[in-house]
Amino acid sequence: MTKQRVLFICTHNSARSQMAEALLRHRYGERYEAQSAGTEPSRVHELAIEAMSELGIDVSGQQAKLVDDLAGEAFDFVVTVCDDAKEACPTFPNAGRALHWSLPDPSRAAGSHDERLAAFRSVRDEIARLLDETFAS
């Protein structure tokens, strides 16, 4: 069986898209090949790594990638996970389906380590819910 290809896009490819990539691979990897990229990639956020490790998922080896480097590839799903990326995202003419999930940026959370980590957990859990809703069946 050929896996369907899914690309998650956000601005910095540091948290939301990285968590979505890892969660889809972890939950539905037998059916989907997951990738992520950003319009202005930076690095995987340390609190995204921590939030994912709580679920037993190691994203510390994942790298931020530039979405333009994937623009010529075919994807069954292209999912933007932030409003800025939706506006700046290149067109994927070979995308079977384009989706948009307007998720808050957890890296903008202020406060103590625990308060900021709570923002990452909240977004992680919302991504998991959206993945189950979209890709479970």
Describe it for me?
With 137 residues, this protein is α/β, with parallel strands linked by helices. Helices cover 36% and strands 19% of the residues. It has a four-stranded parallel β-sheet. The two termini are 16 Å apart.
The fraction of residues assigned to DSSP E strands is 15-25%
Radius of gyration: 14 Å
Low-pLDDT runs: none
Q: Number of helical runs?
A: 4
Order of helices and strands: EHEHEHEH
Global shape: globular
Average pLDDT confidence is 92
**Range of helix content:** 25-40%
Biggest sheet, strands in spatial order?
2-1-3-4
**Structural class determined from secondary elements:** alpha/beta
SSE order and pairing:
Blueprint (H helix, E strand, L loop, with lengths): L3 E7 L5 H13 L3 E7 L7 H8 L21 E6 L2 H6 L6 E6 L12 H23 L2
Parallel strand pairs: 1-2, 1-3, 3-4
Helix pairs in contact: 1-4, 2-4
Supply database-style keywords.
137 residues; alpha/beta; four-stranded parallel beta sheet
Task: Please provide a brief summary of the model.
The chain has 137 residues and is of the alpha/beta class. The chain has four helices and four strands. 37% of the residues are buried.
